[in-house]
Write a structure and sequence with these properties.
Helix content is 75%, strand content 0%. It is mostly helical and 55 residues long.
Length: 55
Amino acid sequence: MSALLEYWFIERFRTLSIKEIRDMFQMLTPLQETRAYQEIFSEGEIEGEIKGKTD
């Protein structure tokens, strides 16, 4: 996955060097800390609880 993201950054930021792009990776918020990830994870927990109660 990180290779795909790196490729996207290279394509998106064509004027930056590879070092500048890799430095950007150090500033990214970890996926687990993003709101979208937390919402998806929360939905999965709820679905799991519902399924567990019906099985």
